[in-house]
């Protein structure tokens, strides 16, 4: 008995005759939604602008300027003359760098930092220069050897005297002398460099010392050895001439 086989071949998929219908109400809704959204946005903007105009937008002004630490050398009145011009300025719009640069111009201000403190305050932190010695009677040298105007308050500092432009040289030499004489508790009252380069010291007890213009540290150490001798302790020495190569000459007070 013979079997009949069906011929195999490609079969054609039946396609659906259904189509998506574009309903008229969808087209109307889509076309009407866009203008409505635009109108709504415009209405919100109008309401927002009207609301903002009714608000009293007064900027918060700087009402107070305070110092983080008290000043030791800088005149506070001079500082207020500079800082008070920022009173009333909008705290939000205030340029901190401008304030700092203005205060940096004051003579005793080394570094300055300004911070905004809400609602209306500026806090000023000032680092002042460190005074080292009086310079030529009417100025003060800082730790960099820069001459500054003498502050109003009194300073218990040594007096340095020298030609204009020799500030750093005289200050550095003074610091070396102070180390030598400070070993025995002696303090320098004045250090003077003459125009020709000769040096003269005055101790706090009134003793005047001439060192000449060379071998300054060696000669000052020689003077200290003499002052430490028992024979001269308690004696009233008026003047010491240390310009000799191997010794010193003393003048006793009468």
Automatic annotation (TrEMBL):
Q: Which intervals hold domain POTRA?
A: 60-129
PROSITE patterns assigned: POTRA (PS51779)
Q: Which InterPro entries match?
A: Cell_div_FtsQ/DivIB_C, FtsQ, FtsQ_C_sf, POTRA, POTRA_FtsQ_type
Q: How does it sit in the membrane?
A: Single-pass type II membrane protein
Name the Gene3D superfamilies for this protein: Cell division protein FtsQ/DivIB (3.40.50.11690), membrane protein fhac (3.10.20.310)
Any Pfam family the entry gives:
FtsQ_DivIB_C
* Cell compartment(s), UniProt: Cell inner membrane; Membrane
Q: Which PANTHER family match?
A: CELL DIVISION PROTEIN FTSQ
Q: What role does it play?
A: Essential cell division protein. May link together the upstream cell division proteins, which are predominantly cytoplasmic, with the downstream cell division proteins, which are predominantly periplasmic. May control correct divisome assembly.
Name the record gives this protein: Cell division protein FtsQ
- What species does this protein belong to? Reinekea thalattae
Q: What gene does this protein come from? A: ftsQ
């Amino acid at each position: 008995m013979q079997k009949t086989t069906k011929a195999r071949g490609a079969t054609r998929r039946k396609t659906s005759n259904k189509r998506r219908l574009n309903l008229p109400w969808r087209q109307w809704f889509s076309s009407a939604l866009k203008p409505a959204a635009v109108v709504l946005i415009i209405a919100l903007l109008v309401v927002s602008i009207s609301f903002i105009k009714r608000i009293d937008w007064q900027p918060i002004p700087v009402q107070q300027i305070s110092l983080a630490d008290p000043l030791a050398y800088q005149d506070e009145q001079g500082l207020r003359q500079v800082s008070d011009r920022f009173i009333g300025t909008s705290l939000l719009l205030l340029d901190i760098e401008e304030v700092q640069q203005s205060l940096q111009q004051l003579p005793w201000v080394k570094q300055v930092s300004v911070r905004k403190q809400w609602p209306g305050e500026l806090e000023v932190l000032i680092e002042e220069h460190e005074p080292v010695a009086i310079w030529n009677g009417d100025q003060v040298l800082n730790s960099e050897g820069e001459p500054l105007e003498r502050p109003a308050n009194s300073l218990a500092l040594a007096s340095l005297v020298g030609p204009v432009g020799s500030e750093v040289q005289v200050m550095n030499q003074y610091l070396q002398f102070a180390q030598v004489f400070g070993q025995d508790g002696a303090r320098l009252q004045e250090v003077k460099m003459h125009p020709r380069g000769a040096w003269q010291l005055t101790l706090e007890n009134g003793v005047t010392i001439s060192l000449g213009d060379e071998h300054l540290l060696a000669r000052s150490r020689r003077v200290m050895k003499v002052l430490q001798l028992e024979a001269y302790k308690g004696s009233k020495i008026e003047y010491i001439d240390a310009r000799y190569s191997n010794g010193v000459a003393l003048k006793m007070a009468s």
